[in-house]
């Protein structure tokens, strides 16, 4: 069994080699990127591109599409050409889809050469085609796909088995001189996953794609992914992340982006500093917070907005916010930079906050066209 005490102490960000996924660098000190996977049928080009656009708007930087059929493979050129972010083709067994993806101009392929070798040994050809096109390949190992040989050796799935499997998969490409690789070693248990990535990062310098696989529904998956990613990223391990949720992929992207923002690895856009409410609250804090969140979604400058349920502790607790409100007696005290600038009825709190935020945006010389009502 593993417990937190056995995990490694914090260390500096670990240096990995760099691969280029389209125009997004991964590894080698590049900013940690967020990725997700579409849930549309890839062959439905319009639906897939619509979902990619939605993911991009939420902060997704790399997107993966599943390629389980010939129709999907035939859709790749159009998707790769029209997608605003790099597209990775996810392929399990069929070498011909790998060649199709490379020829289609996909920015990367996720495929395990062990699977390819089992059915039709064209690993060398794939290595040469990927090398010629400059297409990186991700090797993705998880509990479900572990080689029976390793399951027998280790008596079941464990971090050591995941790592050995990943490095063996890499060796199948390395023997053909291909090293433009990224690796993932996913597990549904965050601690097994953390340990696998820690071990892997000691044994190779390939960029690492972090993921807790089959993490579950939104709440559980968010907690598991956050717990695992926070440990690893704090230790300097991980170059790109994918949060897996049994929920629409845009939610995965929002969670991934928020994790990076919380760890100071990506510039924070909107932060709502809202109180948990208590017996002193003089407003429905939950409702007001939701309204404020909706009003500021997509605001064009980074902002920290405080929503406090009472005037007793409100302003003091929210002093570091750019602006905020403390409620009391049917009114809201609006403060900017710690100073009270207005007192308005509850019904005008949100619009006044937005007005004040626009003034801040103007002062900072930023375009505020992106504001959504
Ligand atoms: Fe309670 Fe006021 Fe603090 Fe909110 S700001 S938690 S209402 S004391």
Automatic annotation (TrEMBL):
Residues 271-356 form the IspG C-terminal domain. It catalyses: (2E)-4-hydroxy-3-methylbut-2-enyl diphosphate + oxidized [flavodoxin] + H2O + 2 H(+) = 2-C-methyl-D-erythritol 2,4-cyclic diphosphate + reduced [flavodoxin]. One of its GO terms (molecular function) is iron ion binding. Its cofactor is [4Fe-4S] cluster. One of its GO terms (biological process) is isopentenyl diphosphate biosynthetic process, methylerythritol 4-phosphate pathway. Coiled coil: none annotated. Pathway: Isoprenoid biosynthesis; isopentenyl diphosphate biosynthesis via DXP pathway; isopentenyl diphosphate from 1-deoxy-D-xylulose 5-phosphate: step 5/6. Keywords: 4Fe-4S, Iron, Iron-sulfur, Isoprene biosynthesis, Metal-binding, Oxidoreductase. It comes from the Bacteria. It is an enzyme of class 1 (oxidoreductase). Binds 1 [4Fe-4S] cluster. InterPro entries: Dihydropteroate_synth-like_sf, IspG_bac, IspG_bac-typ, IspG_C, IspG_TIM, NO2/SO3_Rdtase_4Fe4S_sf. The keyword Iron applies. Residues 16-256 form the IspG TIM-barrel domain. [4Fe-4S] cluster binds at residues 275, 278, 310, 317. Its EC number is 1.17.7.3. It holds the Pfam family GcpE. The keyword Hydrolase does not apply. Converts 2C-methyl-D-erythritol 2,4-cyclodiphosphate (ME-2,4cPP) into 1-hydroxy-2-methyl-2-(E)-butenyl 4-diphosphate. Belongs to the IspG family. This is 4-hydroxy-3-methylbut-2-en-1-yl diphosphate synthase (flavodoxin). The gene is ispG.
């Amino acid at each position: 069994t593993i417990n937190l005490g056995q995990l490694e102490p914090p260390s500096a960000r670990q240096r990995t080699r760099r691969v280029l996924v389209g125009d997004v660098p991964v590894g080698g000190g590049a900013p940690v990127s967020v990725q997700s996977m579409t849930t549309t049928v890839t062959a439905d080009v319009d639906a897939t591109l619509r979902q990619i656009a939605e993911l991009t708007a939420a902060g997704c930087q790399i997107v993966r599409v599943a390629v389980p059929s010939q129709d999907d493979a035939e859709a790749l050129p159009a998707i790769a050409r029209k997608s605003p972010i790099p597209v990775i083709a996810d392929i399990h067994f069929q070498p011909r889809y790998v060649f199709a993806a490379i020829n289609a101009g996909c920015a990367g392929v996720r495929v395990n050469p062990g699977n390819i070798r089992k059915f039709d040994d064209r690993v060398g050809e794939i290595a040469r085609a990927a090398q010629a096109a400059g297409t990186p390949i991700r090797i993705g190992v998880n509990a479900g796909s572990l080689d029976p040989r390793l399951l027998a050796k280790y008596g079941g799935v464990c971090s050591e088995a995941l790592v050995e499997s990943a490095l063996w998969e890499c060796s199948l490409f390395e023997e053909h001189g291909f090293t433009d690789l990224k690796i993932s070693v996913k597990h549904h248990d965050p601690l097994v996953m953390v340990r696998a990535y820690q071990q892997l990062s000691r044994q190779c310098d390939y960029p690492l794609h972090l993921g807790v696989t089959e993490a579950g529904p939104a709440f559980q998956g968010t907690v598991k992914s956050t717990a695992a990613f926070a440990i690893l990223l704090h230790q300097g391990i991980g170059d790109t992340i994918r949060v897996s949720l049994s929920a629409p992929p845009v939610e995965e992207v929002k969670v991934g982006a928020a994790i990076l923002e919380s760890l100071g690895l990506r510039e924070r856009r909107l932060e709502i500093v809202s109180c948990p409410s208590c017996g002193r609250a003089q407003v429905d804090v939950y409702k007001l917070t939701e309204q404020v969140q909706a009003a500021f979604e997509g605001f064009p400058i980074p902002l920290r907005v405080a929503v406090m349920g009472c005037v007793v502790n409100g302003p003091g607790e929210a002093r570091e916010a750019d602006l905020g409100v403390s409620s009391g007696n049917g009114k809201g005290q609006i403060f900017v930079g710690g100073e009270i600038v207005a007192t308005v009825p509850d019904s005008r709190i949100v619009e006044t906050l937005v007005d004040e935020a626009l003034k801040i945006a103007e002062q900072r010389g930023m375009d505020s066209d992106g504001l959504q009502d």
